[in-house]
Design the sequence.
């Protein structure tokens, strides 16, 4: 009876594991299937490098370079916010905070990571946008800078939580050996602890970038929604995710506009795939360096 239960549980988990793979393959298949007509109906080079996105004009123009540049600008800006604050928070919680402070800060960070994105969007619209507009004396606060700051704040809990977990897994013997050799606390932190946890820290950064790149509702609310080439962080922009969210409901099924939006989704999928592959390469490099993998 016990062997039967164990076998059934094994079969159940095997089915669940392959179901995840099946759903992933299904998503990839749909993205490729719905994006493929673009190859025959549009010039791919102009689609990727065109500087005008006017799907409702006559004639319509489908150049996604402004959308890709908007996503790039917003992602880079968000990384300048979340990486130093996230890793700094993780270092403080793991290495400097007292036990009482750690017991308070850890749950707070976890709670922040669970706040819905639309709440961050309201925060950006009602507080950050007017503040940015007033500080820099610009026509509108709904721009790439506001989107970068809000998305950076959103990604801080992801970077901080995973980085702190990585730091906590560094063996105590590493610290003790460093102190025994005469290193002070700062030298131990910079030369020993951070390199030993570099795999987890790099993973946290990649996951933070993935959240920023794939975020939809927040950028739709605070980026300004202008599908033009950004010239500065003060310009309104429209990243790829917000373009799909704003226009998919209005695009006629089977139209060029419809297939173009799926093509944008495929590009986002490929970008995320590259991020994860890059994270795995970094992770493997540091595992080999530390002798944890071969």
Sequence:
């Amino acid at each position: 009876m016990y062997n039967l239960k164990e076998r059934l549980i094994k079969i159940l988990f095997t089915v669940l594991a392959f179901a995840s793979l099946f759903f992933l393959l299904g998503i990839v298949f749909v993205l490729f299937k719905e994006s493929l007509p673009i190859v025959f109906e549009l010039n791919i080079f102009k689609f990727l490098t065109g500087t005008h996105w006017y799907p409702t004009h006559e004639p319509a123009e489908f150049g996604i370079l402004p959308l890709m540049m908007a996503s790039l600008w917003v992602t880079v800006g968000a990384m300048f916010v979340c990486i130093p604050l996230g890793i700094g928070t993780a270092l403080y919680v793991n290495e400097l905070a007292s036990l009482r402070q750690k017991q308070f800060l850890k749950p707070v960070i976890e709670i922040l990571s669970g706040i819905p994105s639309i709440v961050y969007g309201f925060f950006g619209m009602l507080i950050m946008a007017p503040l940015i507009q007033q500080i820099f004396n610009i026509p509108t606060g709904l721009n790439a800078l506001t989107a970068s700051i809000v998305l950076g704040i959103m990604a801080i809990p992801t970077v901080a939580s995973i980085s702190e977990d990585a730091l906590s897994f560094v063996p105590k013997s590493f610290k003790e050996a460093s102190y025994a050799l005469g290193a002070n606390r700062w030298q131990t932190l910079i030369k020993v602890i951070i390199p030993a946890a570099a795999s987890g820290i790099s993973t946290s950064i990649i996951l933070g970038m993935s959240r920023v790149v794939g975020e939809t509702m927040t950028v739709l609310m605070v980026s300004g929604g202008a599908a033009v080439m950004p010239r500065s962080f003060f310009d309104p922009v429209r990243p790829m995710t917000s373009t799909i969210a704003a226009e998919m409901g209005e695009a006629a099924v089977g139209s060029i506009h419809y297939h173009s939006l799926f093509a944008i989704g495929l590009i986002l999928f490929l970008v995320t795939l590259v991020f994860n592959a890059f994270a795995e390469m970094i992770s493997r490099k540091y595992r080999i360096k530390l002798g944890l993998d071969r």
Notes: The first strand starts at residue 53 and ends at 54.
